[in-house]
């Protein structure tokens, strides 16, 4: 009787193990079939919500290794009083509000319709940050490839991990 019970238990366990053995290829096939393509760059005249959504999509595609929710900054173009005030408010936000609370593993996504204004904004931020303030933080800059060198050198002292994604 003891052998019959052991054989029954062994047969049930074997059936359970076979039933639980799911192939792993379906998960990898699903992820590889979803090719990562960058969303279409909005027009320079597009509104802030459109640019914010664009930057969020870029962040999802190029920031998959970042575990924390990103902070997105849409940098307005132009030299109007409103645009200058907005850039100053965003600078103050990064330097005094977000920068001090960001932890390693966090991410800032910065971009806008004018790559030169984005680089200038980052320069203003970098001037006010202490060395290594952004150490362990990913700063993803969505800009033109021509701005990559300037952006990287501007943020070097901050200790940030800089990623430039071209529009």
Provide an overview of this structure.
By secondary structure, the chain is of the alpha/beta class. It has one domain (37-166). The protein has helices at residues 2-20, 25-33, 48-62, 81-101, 115-128, 148-155; strands at residues 71-74, 107-111, 138-143, 161-166. Strands 1-2-3-4 form a 4-stranded parallel sheet, sandwiched between helices. Helix 6 (148-155) links the parallel strand 3 and strand 4 (161-166). The longest helix is centred in the middle third of the chain and has 21 residues, at 81-101. The relative contact order is 0.12. Residues 13-35 have low confidence and may be disordered.
- Measured by DSSP, the beta-strand proportion falls in 5-15%
Biggest pleated sheet = 4 strands, parallel
Low-confidence stretches: 13-35
Mean pLDDT: 82
Tertiary shape = globular
Report the radius of gyration as a whole number of Å: 24 Å
Keywords: Signal
Organism: Burkholderia ubonensis
Protein name: Lipoprotein
